Fold each of these.
Amino acid sequence: MSDIDLLDLPLVLLSNRGPVSFDRDASGRTVNRGAGGLVSALSGLAEHLDDAVWVCGAATPEDAAVAGENDGGAILVQTQPTPHVVEGQPDGPSIRVRLVVTDPDAYADFYSVWSNPILWFIQHGLYGRSLAPVLTRAEHDAFENGYAAVNRAYADAVADEVRSRGGKALVLLQDYHFYLVAEHVREQCPDVVLTHFVHIPWPGPDEWRVLPGNIRERLLRGLLGSDVVGFHTRRYARNFVLCAGELLGLPINLDDLTVTVNDRVVSARYYPISVDPAALDATLASEDVAAHMAMLRYVFLDEDRQLVLRVDRTDPSKNVVRGFLAFGTLLDQHPELVGRVSFLALLQPSRTDVPEYADYIALIGAVVAEINAKHTKEGRQPIDLRMVEDFALAVAAYSICDVLMVNAIADGMNLVAKEVAVVNRRGGVLALSEMAGSHEELGEFAVTLHPFDVQQMADALYTALTMPMEERHRRLAAAAEQVRTHDVRRWLNDQLADLRHLAGFS
Ligand code: ADQ
């Protein structure tokens, strides 16, 4: 990560899941590195700074034990080549980590009642539309004793780290778990320079009116403790500014996307997150992926057959059921495709303790069974549903699919589309929801899906599957170029450049 723009101030990061996590096996304590593009991008930054600390939740019992042994203070973890806790001087890349332990009941209210599903559902247009009772006394209490209390505990940990660095630091907060943190940190450390990045969509004021006035105001005022509130797209940033104007009555400027709070000006900015193309290229070249690729070709691509792919968590916002209904409609209306096109779905079970998610998995299974019963031909089932989390398998499938389906009803960015753009070698067509943030960058190279219109999605799949090869390759090359020139380092550097400016360094 030597091309990350380094900073001249100490850095404090906050996210719910951190860069490392501890476990225990027969040989004793083990240290695991967190997975995913976000963690590796921010880890790269933290590893290169002399004075950085990453505040995160203690996710495992062993994390809590480590935190207890260190009185809740930060520990230094060497991340490469073998992750381990450092007592003296590290001889490789290392990150200072502060694991925050909170009361388990409070954490459950924070995470499983408020962060998911209430905030996630509101921000993906899924909340309060059924006739289920919302908000009950229990949910009101869970806000105070869970979301607000846990946010306060994390804010105190961040403020403590800022104070121990002389009271002036750059603070990067991540996501919907921590909307109240910025305001608390600023109260304690007025000289911080603070960005809160929201990884999921930000809807307009009316969608937020499903929450009572006092709660939505606290969430907004909490975020407005930041100097910059970052989003993936201009649309989300604009919605945020509109919320501050309409729901809090604050002065706003919709041209430069700013909100004035007392004497401070808070900017809403957009930084589209992306992938690490070099890391993806390396994964694609691995033996593991090659073995999966050979298997997938054998199963799905003999005799000029075609493959439609989706790779998602089983989250209702990803709209998996309607995606299968569209594929079923395609086969109903184009019987010549039966036996010639397969749909591989790699679905990672997600948040199964939340009833809506468990119900959703059952519904996915039922819809797939129905379509397979109707359209199985010569022993070939049209849909191959695999409930797995296997990134090497996903990358192998990305590289050889003819069409990638992303039909989310709302999605902050959607990195799957960007991953496919980088690793596909078959002229794969992106069939991409207009509601995914990535549609702003990749829509012109994709076939657009309207996620609430099953017939339109079926027609769009047909367009993608019958597109001339030359055009497929032309579009894919353009999408790959866009992603390679707008990678995750750029996402980070653009934020750092704004922070440096705010801190008076440029
Ligand atoms: P997610 O909702 O998790 O992220 P996404 O951006 O698509 O959605 O990232 C998912 C990641 O998990 C991808 O790297 C994908 O390859 C991987 N993945 C998904 N299913 C998998 C499976 N079955 N097996 C293996 N790997 C799988 C949230 C927001 C997004 C936003 C990101 C980053 O909801 O909109 O893009 O954060 O900000």
Amino acid sequence: MTQRLGQYLDRVREQLGKDVVVTDPDLILPWLTDWRGRWTGRSPALLEPRETRHVSVMLALASELGQPIVTQGGNSSMVGGATPDDSGDQLILSTRRMNAIRAIDAKRRVAVAEAGTILETLHEEARAHDLRFPLTLGAKGSATIGGLASTNAGGTQVLRFGTMRGLVEGVEAVLPDGSVHDGLSGLKKDNRGFSLDQLLIGAEGTLGVITAARLKLVPLPRGRTTIWAALADLDHALDLLTRLQDGLGDRLEGFEVLPHDSLVAAMEHLGIASPIGTVSPWYALVEIAYPQAGEGREKVEALLAAALEANIIGDAVVAANESQSQALWRIRDSLSDAEKAHYGMATQHDISVPVADIPAFMAKVREAVEARWPGSQVSGYGHLGDGNIHLHVRAMERAREDWRQAEGEEIERFVHDIVIAHGGSISAEHGIGVMKRDELARLGEPARLMALRAVKVALDPAGIMNPGKLIP
Ligand code: MLT
Ligand code: ZN
């Protein structure tokens, strides 16, 4: 441990007590590797603040001494955004003990939750008030509100409700110098210059620590329909999306697609049979919610019948009850793990292009990558309604130890170039973290890079917050 680190930890203990610093290596170990197992770092201690004041003291001291801090919530970053580097010099600040839901105001439909609150816990609490926090994703059992806000997380119901940026009404956060920004008041109008809250959302912990967030809640739907539809290709998927949007408006909450090879991986991983009798190149998983019970099912069935008639879908299964609906979503939520277990090494891309361009984009990538790297396989699943596909290039028989390091990185650049040529983004929802920092530097337009660097230097002159992530 360096002298600076020792001095820092002593002063934190002096001011806040011993129990906010954990040095037992067994307790630190689980937090040193990202959940996909791609990056492992070192950290001699975990900081465990219990309240905002603790974070304030920790950051003020860190700024004074130049001590690097990596903030971590549920450790479910897909881009190594919350893993310390291997210098042994960075300290993890875990928000997990700051997990109180400070308030749920059912009348105003708002919750104030501390950073370490687990998403699923917020879902349950909101449901107890007949309300819903309408952002969900596969990692809901571990992802925390602070991490979700810091990364502007998306998930499977962005289509109707947007990403965290649209669902957070304000944040409480500690800036690198220890000052506290309180944005929890819930003002509808506040034009005192640019929004610090929005700046911190998506900053990936590089500008400070979000300690709590004020979150929009919506009424619980009284009914829902979940559909699994078989599709010949992505053009048909877009046609179905358009028909459902036209016919259902904002009752359409989610529109996800997956290819048959992803379903095969999920069936094996979960030990289940296919939810549909037809084998098809693609499937759509569609979620429709109704404000009133018993509303709308006939309309959905009529829309599906018309889509069948027009040969847009080959077949469809409509969940008959809540447990069937959950079983369909379980398939979708398992895909990340299932793909990893079934297909092994793959380079993974989280890209977006304009929604209408997805079919042409996917065809282009498949053709170009498989021609350049014979034996690899391009596949993708995800949030078609948001123009966001998790595009995987599977190593298949090419699999070797150096797949990701050498060939994988070349493939990543190759795919990203096609994304940019389509006017897209190399990070639709997972963020930049450590994984895409160099690609952001290579491809980020000058204005974006200049602004990122300038804001970082202005707010964090000592460079203590999540060094090595996001900012090229
Ligand atoms: C998802 O949509 O399942 C997640 O963003 C994770 C992923 O598969 O990349
Ligand atoms: Zn996703």
